């Protein structure tokens, strides 16, 4: 058994000549593989962890957008109303900038010490720094706490790897759709909480006194609720199983751990196992991975810019081309959208992916987004109740299409690398995505502020220019889903 164990690294599960699977005792990854072999069904317990951890990292990302406009106003940093969007963009960007700088390191760490320790530390950072953001008393405190929240939150990359590793191949589409569903719902429910719970002393004067903690810190309550949920998830992670293979007693077995940095920078790593030679390419030379990451980054840039613009546009005055909605109104729209995402991803997306595949479904979704975005600026001419109905329908369709695209790129990325590179690959993906999402809010805020000053421009006046530029990015992402830009793995050649 010791010889077999020694030969099993770094490929930790093997088929012997008789078809019998060999596992290493005491290895958490082998324990998970053994459960997968014995139980062909859906691992609901592990999927719950995937769901709540992803939700935990998504909630604080965009929960500030419904009240960010008012927060910047109350911090007295903008000299004019038209400049609020400019300053708001940098607060939104600071989170993604922090995550951009550390995501690859967190991915490598997850491949070194395991998925679970990185997940636990990331959730702890959400509890601490999201709470501090709600207590911000200055513009720079708000930026600093959001930056640290992003830099110390390495959750999404490892949890995507974890989702693939806890289930059998036939359930991978469902596993990654759970990640994108929880992610999408978090990006919707987060703003809904922010919209409903911000400024409670004004919205619920019978419950919250102006002299209370929530009166003095009007944006603390939604942050506190998110942090409380994160604290509950943190406690539940005590029982979360590890999936990383950890083998002892072989010289070769640590190559998948010690050589992770080499996977990023070396042209190839040759690993000898059972008399055969397996060649592992550098992640940067793995074009199926890198091309899918590029597509992912473009659509992530679009989604983040859209999320920022939607709340700013909906809450701005109608004389500037907005809808004059309150933060509570925006929260209600986003809550409806979040509920639709849950239904769509659990019951519809797996069937769509089975029929169309991740590439074709992403292409169709991208094309359908374009006319929807073109219709947004004209909603300012609608009145109630038609405005609410149309806005809700448009938001539901747009966000479900966006999640379809993101889920498709998740599937492509995680099937482009072996398990021992999956954490680093997802970390690299997160680095690129975080950079684009750091630029997106700042760029969207600047463009939005500029657009509101040109209400009578000749070419796409006012907010029409904002949504036109969003469509340009969407079209670029659509083009990049075709060859030669996107390298297609063998199993997706039908796409």
TrEMBL record:
Membrane topology listed for this record: Multi-pass membrane protein
Record InterPro entries: MFS (IPR011701), MFS_dom (IPR020846), MFS_trans_sf (IPR036259)
PROSITE patterns associated with the record: MFS
Localization: Membrane
Domain of life: Eukaryota
Transmembrane segment boundaries: 44-72, 84-106, 118-141, 176-199, 219-240, 289-313, 333-352, 364-383, 389-412, 424-448, 468-489
GO cellular component labels: membrane
Domain spans labelled Major facilitator superfamily (MFS) profile: 46-489
CDD domains: MFS_SLC46_TetA_like
Keyword field: Membrane, Transmembrane, Transmembrane helix, Transport
PANTHER family linked: MAJOR FACILITATOR SUPERFAMILY (MFS) PROFILE DOMAIN-CONTAINING PROTEIN, MAJOR FACILITATOR SUPERFAMILY DOMAIN-CONTAINING PROTEIN 10
UniProt protein name: Major facilitator superfamily (MFS) profile domain-containing protein
Taxonomic source organism: Urochloa decumbens
């Amino acid at each position: 058994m010791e010889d077999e164990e020694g030969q099993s690294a770094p490929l930790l599960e093997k088929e012997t000549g008789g078809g019998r699977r060999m596992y290493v005792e005491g290895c958490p990854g082998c324990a998970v593989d053994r459960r997968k072999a014995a139980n062909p069904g859906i691992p609901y317990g592990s999927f719950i962890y995937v769901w709540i951890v992803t939700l935990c990292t998504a909630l604080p990302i965009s929960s500030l957008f419904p009240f960010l406009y008012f927060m910047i106003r109350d911090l007295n940093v903008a000299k004019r109303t038209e400049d609020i969007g400019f300053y708001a963009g940098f607060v939104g960007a600071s989170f993604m900038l922090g995550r951009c700088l550390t995501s690859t390191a967190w991915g490598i760490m997850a491949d070194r010490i395991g998925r679970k320790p990185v997940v636990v530390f990331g959730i702890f950072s959400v509890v601490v720094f999201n709470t501090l953001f709600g207590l911000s008393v200055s513009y720079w405190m708000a930026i600093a706490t959001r930056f640290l929240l992003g830099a110390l939150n390495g959750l999404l990359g490892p949890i995507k790897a974890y989702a693939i590793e806890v289930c059998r191949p036939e359930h991978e589409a469902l596993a990654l759709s759970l990640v994108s569903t929880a992610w999408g719902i978090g990006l919707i429910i987060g703003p809904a909480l922010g919209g409903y719970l911000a400024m409670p002393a004004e919205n619920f004067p019978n419950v919250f006194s102006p002299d209370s903690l929530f009166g003095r810190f009007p944006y603390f309550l939604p942050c506190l609720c998110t942090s409380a949920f994160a604290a509950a998830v943190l406690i539940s992670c005590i029982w979360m199983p590890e999936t990383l293979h950890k083998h002892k007693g072989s010289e070769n077995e640590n190559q998948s751990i010690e050589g992770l940095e080499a996977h990023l920078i070396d042209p190839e790593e040759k690993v000898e196992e059972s008399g055969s030679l397996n060649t592992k390419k550098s992640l940067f030379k793995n074009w199926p991975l890198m091309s899918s990451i590029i597509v992912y980054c473009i659509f992530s840039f679009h989604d983040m810019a859209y999320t920022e613009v939607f709340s700013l546009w909906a809450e701005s005055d109608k004389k500037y081309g907005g809808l004059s909605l309150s933060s509570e109104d925006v929260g209600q729209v986003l809550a409806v959208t979040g509920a639709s995402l849950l239904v769509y991803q659990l019951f519809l997306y797996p069937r769509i992916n089975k029929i169309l595949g991740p590439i074709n479904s992403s292409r169709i979704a991208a094309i359908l987004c374009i006319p929807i975005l073109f219709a947004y600026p004209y909603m300012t001419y609608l009145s109630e109740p038609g405005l609410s109905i149309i806005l809700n329908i448009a938001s539901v369709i747009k966000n479900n299409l966006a999640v379809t695209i993101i889920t498709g790129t998740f599937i492509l990325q995680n099937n482009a690398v072996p398990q021992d590179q999956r954490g680093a690959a997802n970390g690299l993906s997160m680095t690129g995505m975080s950079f684009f999402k750091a630029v997106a809010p700042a760029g969207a805020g600047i463009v939005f502020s500029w657009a509101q000053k040109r209400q009578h421009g000749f070419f796409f006046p006012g907010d029409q220019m904002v949504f036109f530029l969003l469509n340009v990015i969407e079209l670029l992402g659509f083009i990049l889903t075709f060859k030669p830009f996107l390298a297609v793995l063998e199993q997706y050649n039908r796409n």
